[in-house]
Amino acid sequence: MKDLEPDTKDWTWVLSRPCSECGFDPTAVRPGEVAGMIRDDAALWVSRLHHPRATVRTRADRWSVLEYGCHIRDVHRIFEHRVQLMLSEHDPQFPNWDQDATAIADDYGSQDPATVATELFEAAGIVADTYDRVPDDAWSRRGLRSNGSEFTVATIAIYHLHDIVHHAHDVSSM
């Protein structure tokens, strides 16, 4: 499959205003609600990934449902790692993650949709459990991306949620 144009936008602005593309409003979500929303979203991905056309790119500018599912699975894994760093270290700097390079290196389009559905659901459950266990006094713990963007556990939870909501919007508009 042809590689898509890499996404080079800095999406941190979604923490302060609604996303005009998917409608996500960060002010409408409390960090403590994120875990349940992640679990609900994961269940929807399982059914999407079992659709007979999950492997087909229906638009030239979008991944297939399978490729988005692989990305969402990996997003859950990356955010699990980042939140764990924030909860266990003082002001950790997150390792870089090039999502586009990962999609190519892991050949998202050739993965098995049923396996991805299981892996996505499991990864979502793990990170949701982590958010559920964040102590009240830990939501303000910080972490930094290599570009200097600062997150707290609370803001990274909202940022994470936007990512999965946005991609659910991407596949629903295909």
Question: What do these coordinates show?
Answer:
The longest helix is centred in the middle third of the chain and has 24 residues, at 65-88. The protein starts with 33 loop residues before the first helix and ends with a helix. Helices cover 50% and strands 3% of the residues. The protein is built from 5 helices and 2 strands. Strand 1 (142-144) and strand 2 (150-152) form a beta hairpin. The chain has a single domain, classed as dinb family like domain (Four Helix Bundle (Hemerythrin (Met), subunit A), Up-down Bundle). The protein has a two-stranded antiparallel sheet. It is mostly helical. Helix 1 packs antiparallel against helix 4, helix 2 (65-88) packs parallel to helix 4 (113-132) and helix 2 (65-88) runs antiparallel to helix 5.
